[in-house]
Design goal:
8 helices; Arc Repressor Mutant, subunit A; phosphoprotein; elongated; CheY-like_superfamily; 2 domains; four-stranded antiparallel sheet; Rossmann fold
Length: 219
């Protein structure tokens, strides 16, 4: 999953990126509204964390522009605790959720998980695909109840595919959603990680759809 953080406070921006990266997300960052608007308008994100009080272009304007352009990416707004009007305006502008500053990082992570989960049509943090179970909160994967040890990249790949189980996902889509913009996107990397995952999951769990990409099955 790939997240965009738009926050002008350098320390908070770094803290958010570190926490999200530690939680297994690919993270891009922007420090002003114009840069954030450009990235959100041109890159495919699974969720955006957007501060309202941004230089050059405020967060509400950024959000309104995205929604007018038909961008449906889930957005979590960061608001000032005493500005209830910001929260109302943000929801009316198209925000999916908000959190007030100062906040606990675990709350932000939980809200991001919920946004990503709901956008993919899942009601629970536990996603099941046949004998494979993924706890999106802890990152724990089991097969027939037995824990499976995955690397961070393998887990990121499996998580995206299980959030979109049954869908044929191209290599390009996987690359765009699993790595940040600074990653050296060698197309062979996806094939390597799919190959490694297949060795740890039930046979035929991940299927190749010739000329289109991959699909995870099992239900």
């Amino acid at each position: 999953m790939r997240i965009l953080v738009v926050e002008d406070d350098v320390n908070l921006n770094r803290q958010l990126k570190d926490a999200l990266t530690e939680a297994g997300y690919a993270v891009d960052v922007a420090f002003d509204g114009e840069e954030g608007h450009f990235l959100g308008d041109t890159e495919p994100y699974d969720a955006v964390i957007l501060d309202i009080g941004l230089p050059q272009m405020d967060g509400l304007s950024v959000l309104e522009e995205w929604r007018r352009a038909g961008r449906t990416t889930p957005v979590l707004l960061l608001t000032a605790r005493d500005r209830w009007s910001d929260k109302v305006q943000g929801i009316d502008a198209g925000a999916d959720d908000y959190v007030a500053k100062p906040f606990h990082m675990e709350e932000v992570l939980a809200r991001v998980r919920a946004l990503v989960r709901r956008a993919a049509g899942h009601a629970s943090n536990e996603i099941v695909c046949g004998p494979v179970r993924l706890d999106a909160r802890s990152g724990r994967v089991t097969v027939d109840g037995q824990a499976v040890k995955l690397t961070s990249h393998e887990l990121r790949l499996l998580s995206y595919m299980m959030h979109h189980k049954g869908k044929v996902i191209s290599r390009t889509e996987l690359t765009e959603h699993l790595y940040d913009q600074d990653f050296d996107r060698d197309s062979n990397t996806i094939e390597v990680f799919v190959g490694r995952l297949r060795k740890k999951l039930p046979e035929d769990c991940i299927q190749t759809v010739r000329g289109l990409g991959y699909q995870i099955v099992g239900d």
